[in-house]
Structure formats: C-alpha cells, structure tokens
Amino acid sequence: MFKSLKLMTYLGFLVLSGQSWADNKQVNWSIQKEVMLTQWGEQITPQNAWQQYPRPQLKRDNWQNLNGLWQYAVVDRKASEPNSWDGQILVPFAIESPLSGVAKRLNQQALWYQTEFNFDLNSAQAQILHFEAVDYACKIWLNGHFVGAHQGGNLPFKLDVSNAIQQGSNQLVVRVIDDTDAPDRYQLRGKQTQDNRGIWYTPVSGIWQTVWLENVNPIHIDSIKTQADANGRLNIKMNLAGEHQSVTAKLQVLFNGQPVTSAVSQTGEFNLKVDNVSLWSPANPALYDLKISLLDNNNRVLDEVTSYTGFRSIGRQQDAKGNWQFTLNHQPIFHWGPLDQGWWPDGLLTPPSEAAVLYEMDYLKRAGFNMIRKHKKVESRRYYYLADKLGFLVWQDQVSGGVDSNGGKQEWPVWHQASQTYSDRLKGEIEAAWPYWAHQQYMTELKTMMDTLFNHPSIVVWTTFNERWGQHNTMAVGEFVEQYDPSRHLNIASGGNFFPIGDIADAHHYPEPKFLLDATEFDGYIKVVGEFGGHGWPVQNHVWAPEREKMIYGNMPKTLNEYQSRYIRSITNLAKLKQQGISAGVYTQTSDVETEINGLLTYDRKAEKITAEQLYKIHRQAGLIK
C-alpha cells in the first residue's frame, strides 16, 4: 500500500537526537498572516516545535522526536488514499491552527499525513511509536504495513512497530477523521464546535501533540503506578512488557540529587518508607526523583527509567461549625484558582511552546492562586509535570461530549432547585440516556485519563461531568471513579445535576458567587463554587475577532477601573462564603478565549487586565490567602 502516493518535496530525514527536519532546504510553510499570535508563537519554527521529552513520569534517554514538517492532504472520506499532497503541515499543531501553516477546517473529510524519517535499527530492540494525542479516530501505516488504529482525541496511545520499521529511510502515514459536530454528537470534544462563538471554540482535528519513537528492550517497563503519602510511605507497581520468567528491579530514591533510600524487588512492586520526608504542597512543591533499573538473571540491565513523585495526602475534615473542608497533608486548605480552558490563538489546544505554559503558570502563582481547574481538556503530560514542579492543585475535568438531558441542546443549565429532592429531580430526566457503545467509549477515555495522569501529585480532584453536558449514568460513573482511585476527591457534576456520590457539591453562579447553604441534601459534602465571575473587558488591539459579538457574564463595564472593581466585589463575596463554610472557589477565567473576553489575561497573553501583584493584594486583603 502507498506505493502510488506521489511525494511532493523531499524534506530530509530526522536524526536520532530528536531535532525535527534540521536539514530542510525547501520549506513550503509559514504561519498564517494577520492572525493573533502569542510572543511564543512568533518564535516557532519547524526545527523548534515541541522538542521536549513528552513523558516525564517514565523517561528514557533513547528516543526520537518526529515533530516537524510533514506532508498532508484533505480528501473525500471514500478515497482510499490521496493522489497527491496538498502541502506541508507543522506537527504537532492541528490543521485548523495558524501554527500548522494550514489553518483549514475539515468538512466531513479525511485528513492524511505522511512523513519520512531515518532510523538506525537495532534488531534486538523493540520500537514503540507514540502519539500523545490525535483528534479523533486514526489509522497508521509504517512502510506500507498497517500498524494500528485508535479512537479518542484527547489522550496518548502507542504502537509496537518492531515488525514494520526498517534500517534507514522509513515512511509513516496517518489517516484521521474527526466528527466534531456529528448528528449523534457522542464524540468527546470538550469546547470544540464548527459554529464557534460564545463559550464554544474552533474545532481541532488531527495530530495536536508530540509524535515520537522509543527504542527499548523487548523486556521493559511498560508503566508504573506510584503512590506516596504524607507519612513517607511509597508504593510503586510496575507493569512489564515482553516475555520473561524472572527479572530483578532496583529502585533508587533521590532528593535534591542526593540518594535517600533504595530497594530491590522481584515481584514488580516496591513498598518502602522514607524518613523525615519533605511533603509536597503548593507552598513547598517538593519532588523526589526515582530511578528504576530492570535486570536479568545475569545482572545485565534490560531497561532503565527515571521518574519522580511527591509525598502528599488528600483528605477532608470538619471545621468547628461542622462544615467539610479539603485537607492536604492533614491540614485544612482552601482551594482557590481559575477556570482554565487551555486554548491559544495560534495553536488552539496546543500551546505554542512550553515557555508559554510556564509564563501563564508563573502569573497565576504570583497572583496567589494555589489551584487550577483544567476545564474540559486533558493537557500534555508535560503540563502536569510543570504543575507538579510549580505546586498547583489541579482539578481535572473529563472531556465532555454527547447529548444532554434537555434533548441534546447545550444550554445554560439550572444547577438545582432547592425545593426538589434528589428523587423528584430524577423524575425530571436530569440525565441523558446514552447508547451502550457511546457510554463504553466514555468510560474507556475516562479510565485512560486516570491511568495516564495518576502519578501526578498535583491532581487532587476528578470531575466527571460539567453543567449537565453529556451527563449520563451518573451513579455508575461515580462508583467507578471512587473504586478506581479512592486516593482523590470526586466532583461528580460541577455545576450540573447533583447526585449523592463523591465528595463535593459544586455550584456555578455568574457573575457573583452563590451557594444554597441551607440545602440539606448537601450535608456531608465539601461545598464549593466551581465557577463564578466571568467579568469581561476588551483590551484594544488584543481582541481575537473585533468585529464579532463578545461574550461575558453580565453587562460590559465602561472602564478598566470598573472591571477591576467588579472583580474585587466578587472576590469579597467569595471570601464571605468562605467564612460560611465554602471550601473552594473557581474564577472564570485565566485568559480570554476567542469571542469570550472574560479572562484575567488577553487571549494572546500579551496584556494583563489585572497584574499578578494586584491580584495577590486583592486575594490577601479578602482573606482568601494568608
């Protein structure tokens, strides 16, 4: 297959160092003109696009980055393969994004990719091809051999391509389809829509995170599951790939580069105690490095990986008035942070660079936020690595999709009627009925997300549904999450239809924060305001689409001072709720997104509507931070 594909321009080979297309002599790629760019997007080239190692929680030295300029074609879905290529696309940016160099949308079509790379084959090794995220369904061929397929647009997957890869030149081909607005609408898509306006944004199709190759021993560490608590207990479970009878694993734990303890295991599991442990928290994001070596019976090293962990314990307790509070390391903590969409004007779901993410996190940290609610998006694994290092509590949403309990219309929901009991609201069809296959795909993606992100100490809350969007089988979903990961809090429905499961009762109210404190059905739950605020202000020359209708909550303030005063008023109201037992607040939002202009930062991140220093002062004076 694919011998008939006509290559357009010879682009050169990738090298083992991971540098993408370093030898390009003919490049037919440029960023779309007259679009909003961030300062980091302005610096992107085919040589520097996302070159970092993509999986910090299980790191090896021998890997190859396949990001860079690929060829692409958009064809009718019925076509077996493209007859020619349309041009070049910069991977890992989605085809709709300016940084891809294409900036086109799919219309029920198939998107094809092709790249060539050079590979120094060691036949004694296994070669694993990794895709960090492809939206939505894809098929992959290597050197004309079909090597696998995947469905689900938000999470990493990998393929063993040992039987297809060859010495020297290799050709990789990927076919993608993406039904963002398909009639049944069960595809998990988050905020994507073809009709992007208001709180809905431009679709993202195809490869939108790093593609890479890994060279490993056939017997190797496939994954690890790490738990470390505030008492210094460390448990690591390994899954091994390849046929083996007996192997030995050696673990070394280091802190600040110095060895702390070590252990040996022949069971694939480590259980040990670290004395005088430095606990992980937003104020002290202490991380311990882990080095694991896998040895055969002759003491030869089969595999070696590095990882890290943070010792911390998540829980809850009652205050003197009987209100339930979050605890971290057995101490009460108020979770305070922004709703974070994770969208960028030049890369859409893909940040232009890691430096851009660091800038944003630094701004939030200096503003006094200790939490981020990652909204309807799963970020790259490096994002959570940065959250671990900088010290953020992360509320992780499951990506939404499907039809809703109001007949499929994604309208602003009523959070709950105080006069209605849980059983009364059940009669009102407060959740949708999904077909079996769609629910199973939802659960597959939910479990994969939890598995992928489990080791990150920053993640403290799983949120399964948001505002009734695609809310279905609520109790069964909640029971699965509670059983699968009892170490974290479950927020069953943020601002949606509450069901009596999990740890959190979550209200959304705009623009001012509110909570039905007298509703007895929330007794026994941690009470939070999962969204509020949304005050808007357009900053001249930093508006994504100046001619289009803008979306904020409430009416438009007349001046910047009025906008800032509204923010102070909302923070003051949240502080009052905190005194009444509310244990968290989520302000909407970190940045503007397309026609939403209710961010603390502009969409291009070039202007701060309120500086980090001003925010810190406001938050401290209100009593949200100490």
Please tag this protein with its features.
626 residues, alpha+beta, 8-stranded parallel sheet, 6-stranded antiparallel sheet, 14% helix, 30% strand, disordered N terminus
Short description:
By secondary structure, the chain is α+β, with helices and mostly antiparallel strands. 14% of the residues lie in helices and 30% in strands. It has helices spanning 354-366, 381-390, 422-427, 436-453, 474-484, 560-579, 612-622; strands at 63-65, 68-76, 87-91, 109-119, 126-131, 134-135, 137-142, 145-151, 157-160, 168-177, 206-207, 211-216, 220-228, 233-241, 248-255, 258-265, 269-273, 288-295, 301-309, 314-318, 324-328, 331-332, 335-340, 371-374, 393-397, 459-466, 489-494, 504-508, 526-533, 584-588.
Structure description:
The chain has 626 residues and is of the alpha+beta class. The chain is 14% helix and 30% strand. The protein has an eight-stranded parallel β-sheet. The chain starts with 62 loop residues before the first strand and ends with a helix.
Contiguous helical run count:
7
Rg from alpha-carbon coordinates: 25 Å
Low-pLDDT runs? 1-25, 407-428
Strand order of the largest sheet: 27-26-25-24-23-30-29-28
**Main structural class:** alpha+beta
Give the CA-CA distance, first to last residue.
64 Å
- Helix content class: 10-25%
**Sheet with most strands:** 8 strands, parallel
Shape: globular
Instruction: Give the strand content.
Output: 25-35%
By DSSP, the count of extended strands is 30
Mean pLDDT: 91
